[in-house]
Design brief:
- The complex is a heterodimer.
- Chain A is an alpha+beta fold.
- Chain A has two domains: 33 residues; 110 residues, Cupredoxins -  blue copper proteins (Immunoglobulin-like).
- Helices cover 18% and strands 37% of the residues of chain A.
- In chain A, strands 1, 2, 3, 5 and 8 form a five-stranded mixed sheet that branches.
- Chain A is elongated, with a radius of gyration of 20 Å.
- Chain B has 16 helices and two strands.
- In chain B, helix 1 runs antiparallel to helix 15, helix 4 packs antiparallel against helix 5 and helix 6 crosses helix 13.
- Chain B has a two-stranded antiparallel sheet with strand order 1-2.
- By secondary structure, chain B is mainly α.
- The chains are: A alpha+beta, B mainly alpha.
- Chains A and B meet through helix 1, strand 7 and strand 9 of A and helix 6, helix 9, helix 10, helix 12 and helix 15 of B.
Chain lengths: 153, 550
């Protein structure tokens, strides 16, 4: 192998290895990995199964909330949530029909919500304002209308 | 009997050209759909006759990502095989058989989409349910391509029998690697389509396992993009050196890069499923690491290419740190178009590394950033190289000349393409970072302030898309001109020789059993445990949803 080529490969592979260590450290030591919750649910019985029989905003403690949310074409239940500033919110979600996406632009919240699976993702809302929530996985003819808001004040 | 292996005979030309007609007609149809999509999304066009945005999007994806690419690649590869190892009558018959099956499948799927019964996009994620003929047509395209695979395998096998102890021609080696990659990868999509989706869409079973289907799809979905990229690499490694008047920098490096692509492009599908529930985060991370491995052969390629360029430039007497760049034939479209594609691969590949970076994926997943990304990779790097190939391949097959006028028009086409794509893909990348979702029709999201920010970029996408459509019209004109109107003559089929300075190619590079063995072992390593875990923790299945897509 050519000397320059060895140098090129050593440096670039070295950079890749550094990338991987950073990603691995953030994922496993800092708990920043992508949402990968593993509970399942019968997609045809969602309304009857806890906690989805009572979707909504639930207070867990001081500035700690859980949102139990059902996604279906083309709506989020509950919708237009209001929470106090500085709240840590855990979203517990599933789908009643096809695969949906749950994305809050401007934050790192971005998760797939699939029928048969329960997905969880958390975020602390430190900035006041009205956050847009969109479905970002094609779910049918009205997909572009599937959105709601979260108001933080 | 192997026929004349020096030039493409008439019968082989006809076979290759049949694939090219389908490819370039697809380019026109798919490009038109793309233009209409950008116009709808900019808020300036409302589709007539109740046509849905998602119907256009399904046509655009299927016809460009699956039909154009597959037909061009298989046709191009038959040309390379015929040129380097030859093609017998029997092999040609089986190639035609595969072609007709693929075409029949394409037409079946296309009719289903046009009737509005398959607005499921080209990823057809269950439990969105299309009419059965959509899946059956796609299965036939895959089966037809398998016939192409085995024809190519047979061609090299017969050549090796006749040339014992010789190393296989570089391009034939590359074609066989790409077809092995394709065959192993399509087993996944064939499994979900044939075992899960067809019986389910026919009503033979009530429900489908959604996560298993997605996992099988993405087992195929990532190597699919390398199946597009490798033919471009074939041209870069083994054809462009000849066009610029140089030699192949190293035969063994080229083969090594292709072997690495075979091994590392398949066990990485989870990086498309990073934000999905039900997949163990440790296995997601393992596949992210494997994804980083597949960057290495691309880095090897980048080095090889620029080494070839520099050596060639200097051999022509140009000196200085960058002076050798002047030694390259910038006014030859056969070089210029692929070169622009190659340069585009620098930002395109960087974006790919971002997408694959586990938690960073959350920032861009399913936003229009991703659409911007693959319009740079496949939509610029790969397609401009394919156009670059066409400028010599089509006239050399039709017995015509690449005229000066067409060369100039091709240069203009390349510039139009690069310009339009910079605008379109650039604004897609920015809008994606701001959170705009991909695959969504025009929406103001209830007058949301954030969504208002996106509209400007969507208008920019329509401007870029319109410029690109001019590029498509130019290219389709060039294609038909080269087929029917260019002056008769002989156009060179350029195949480069290996540089005298290159080290000899070690024998182990052609140890197929070893490479296939490692590939299978890596796939089993990356998928066995998480896949069993997915099946073991399966929820009750999902019924189909076909009303919400109409």
């Amino acid at each position: 192998m050519n000397r320059l080529e060895e140098l090129w490969l050593t440096v670039s592979v070295g950079i890749l290895v550094i990338f991987m260590f950073i990603i691995g450290y953030q994922t496993f030591a800092l708990g920043m990995g992508p949402p990968s919750h593993k509970e399942t649910i019968d997609p045809q019985q969602v309304d009857q199964i806890e906690p989805f029989d009572e979707p909504g905003l639930k207070m867990l403690g001081d500035k700690q909330y859980e949102v139990v949310m059902i996604l279906q074409a083309f709506a989020f239940t509950p919708s237009h949530i209001e929470i106090p500033i500085g709240s840590e919110v855990e979203f517990t979600m599933t789908s009643k029909d096809v695969t949906h996406g749950f994305q809050i632009p401007g934050t790192n919240i971005n998760a797939m919500v699939m029928p048969g699976h329960i997905q969880k993702i958390s975020h602390t809302f430190n900035e006041p304002g009205e956050y847009l929530v969109v479905c970002n996985e094609y779910c049918g003819i009205g997909h572009q209308a599937m959105s709601t808001t979260i108001t933080v004040k | 009997m192997i026929k004349n292996s020096v030039a493409l005979n008439k019968l082989d030309s006809k076979l290759v050209m049949a694939h090219m007609y389908v490819a370039f007609i697809s380019l026109f149809i798919g490009g038109l759909m793309g233009l209409l999509q950008t116009l709808v999304r900019s808020g300036t066009l409302v589709l007539p006759f109740g046509i849905s945005y998602y119907q256009l999007l399904t046509v655009h994806g299927v016809i460009l990502a699956l039909v154009l690419t597959t037909f061009f690649i298989i046709g191009f590869q038959f040309a390379l095989m015929s040129k380097t190892v030859g093609m017998s009558d029997k092999q040609r018959d089986s190639a035609w058989f595969g072609f007709w099956i693929m075409l029949f499948g394409t037409v079946t799927t296309a009719i289903t989409i046009l009737l509005g019964k398959a607005n499921v996009l080209y990823t057809f994620y269950a439990p969105l349910k299309a009419y059965p003929t959509f899946y059956i047509g796609l299965a036939l395209v895959v089966v037809g391509s398998w016939i192409g695979c085995f024809t190519n395998f047979r061609q090299l096998y017969v050549w090796k029998k006749k040339h014992p102890g010789e190393k296989s021609p570089l391009l034939a080696f590359m074609v066989v690697i790409n077809m092995l990659l394709w065959f192993i990868a399509t087993l996944g999509v064939a499994a979900t389509v044939i075992i899960q989706l067809i019986p389910w869409s026919l009503g033979m079973v009530d429900t489908v396992n959604v996560l298993v289907s997605r996992t099988l799809f993405w087992y195929f979905g990532h190597p699919l993009v390398y199946f597009w990229l490798l033919p471009a690499y074939m041209a870069w490694y083994a054809i462009i050196p000849k066009i610029i008047g140089g030699k192949i920098f190293s035969d063994s490096l080229a083969r090594l890069a292709f072997v690495l692509f075979l091994m590392f492009s398949i066990p990485v599908g989870f990086h498309h499923q990073l934000t999905e529930p039900g997949i163990d985060p440790v296995w997601k991370f393992i596949q992210v690491v494997l994804t980083f491995m597949v960057i290495i052969p691309s880095l090897l390629t980048a080095f090889s290419m620029f080494a070839t360029f520099e050596v060639t430039g200097r051999s022509k007497g140009y000196t200085g740190l960058f002076g050798w760049l002047k030694g390259l034939p910038w006014k030859d479209v056969r070089f210029f178009a692929p070169m622009v594609g190659m340069i585009t691969f620098i930002p395109a590949g960087t974006g790919g590394i971002i997408n694959a970076s586990n938690q960073m994926n959350q920032v861009v997943h399913n936003t229009i950033w991703v659409t911007g990304h693959f319009h740079l990779t496949v939509g610029t790097t790969v397609i401009l190289t394919f156009f670059g190939i066409s400028y010599w391949l089509i006239p050399s097959l039709t017995g015509r000349k690449l005229t000066k006028k067409i060369n100039t028009l091709g240069m203009i086409q390349t510039i139009v393409w690069a310009f339009g794509m910079s605008i379109m893909s650039g604004s897609m990348h920015i809008a994606g970072l701001l959170g705009a979702p991909r695959r969504s029709s025009y929406s103001t999201y209830g007058g949301s302030e954030q969504a208002t920010e996106w509209i400007g970029y969507q208008i920019a996408q329509a401007i870029g898309g319109s410029i690109l459509f001019i590029g498509i019209i130019l290219m389709v004109y060039i294609f038909f001109y080269m087929v029917f109107a260019a002056p008769k003559g002989q156009e060179e089929f350029p195949i480069a020789e290996v540089s005298e300075d290159a080290e000899p190619t070690p024998k182990f590079l052609e140890n197929w059993k070893l490479w296939i063995g490692i590939t299978v072992a890596l796939i089993l390593f990356a998928y066995t445990i998480p896949f069993l875990d997915i099946i073991h923790h399966s929820p009750p299945g999902s019924p189909g949803f076909d009303k919400i897509i109409r």
